[in-house]
Write a structure and sequence with these properties.
The protein is mainly alpha-helical. Helix content is about 75%, strand content about 0%. The longest helix is centred in the last third of the chain and has 24 residues.
Length: about 70
Amino acid sequence: MPKRYSPQVRAEAVRLALEHVEAHGSAYAAARAIGPMVGVHYETLWMWTKQALSERAWRAQRGQSGVATPPAG
């Protein structure tokens, strides 16, 4: 059975990963570095981080164009 993480753990792990994406050069590298520190498997954190980046881009695009089209996936 997959490991379940609380919303608080997920939010904190994603926040930390997003803060380190630029320093590590990619969401994958940030997840590899941050995941073990917060007790989340790096692949899980990578997926969460990619989703957060996608949602962030969608919100930015929506704010600029005014078109409300949700991200795929």
